[in-house]
User: Fold Iron-sulfur protein IND1 from Aspergillus cavernicola.
Amino acid sequence: MATKRRLFSTFRCLQHENPLGLPRSGTPPSFPRRRGLPEKRKIRDVKKVIAVSSAKGGVGKSTIAVNLALSFARRGIRTGILDTDIFGPSIPTLLNLSGEPRLDENNCLIPLTNYGLKSMSMGYLLPQPPLSESIPDPTHPDRQPMDTTPISWRGLMVTKAMHQLLHSVSWGPLDVLFLDLPPGTGDVQLTINQEILLDGAVIVSTPQDIALRDAVRGFGMFQRMDVPVLGMVRNMAFFACPECGHQTKIFSHGLHKHEHSHGQKGEEDWGVLAECQRLGVDFLGDIPLDARVCEDADRGVPTVVAEEGENEGQSVRRKAFMDVAEKVAKKVGIEW
Ligand SMILES: Nc1ncnc2c1ncn2[C@@H]1O[C@H](COP(=O)(O)OP(=O)(O)O)[C@@H](O)[C@H]1O
Ligand SMILES: [Mg+2]
Assistant:
């Protein structure tokens, strides 16, 4: 009886000590070294990669990304834009491009080009829905119907698609590639962070506190990723009346109420500018809230292109984008 109990307990004990059947010698077993995360690398043939980011959607990130990229491209700098917003690709609309990209001899996607800017987007790769399934727009029967196909992918699919967009596009030599990021800090951002060496990030915020809070979170993300934050852009900073040119700050700029009642202009506020100062981030400039910025974007001729030409010197909208672009160029060492 006693032997049996002892045996039993020995057995139990052994089971516990050696649950994985490892050798019981004094030296610990050696494990084959697991490969860690994929190493960060540069995108082939691309000198500088700049991410345009915001933590919120709808603050004008794609509008700013495409206008910045076009500012570079129109100055003869070899530029591309990669739309990494897999669930809401906007670059095809903004550049008035569609159709399936061709593959080169290495099975890499060939970017689509408009206005001298190369582009790649998930929007080009998704199958177009048959016309019978799409909902025509009754007010604009001539316009291409909007796509009703939902894109609902799990993390793994997102990562796979991102992988292809990051590594299998034949950009040809580029001086700079802009990444239009989706909002937030999700799978796409993580994949980019793990796989790509970014030269800098531009953070877009609107003046309101609620957007700014998220922008600050986005700043934290890049800081943790060791990506230099080039600065913050304040979009929809003010509304310039097309009739009289008067500037109205539609969104709260974080000004104290009594400052308003004293009629102070309030050039300085504790919103975006103060936050930039607190974080040690450069303020790159204001983009006005202007119906033409939106109209031009919708019709696929972004401001920087739409207002190019004879009177471009008078276009405050175009100048706003170009000024930000110039600052960004200088910060990453691109000759302007
Ligand atoms: N400065 C601006 N003035 C007027 N409309 C703007 C401005 N910036 C963006 N928009 C409009 O706001 C909407 C959202 O912009 P978008 O660039 O798609 O945002 P995000 O990429 O951050 O989701 C679009 O209709 C765009 O045309
Ligand atoms: Mg967007």
Summary: The chain has twelve helices and nine strands. Residues 6-15, 256-268 have pLDDT under 50 and may be disordered.
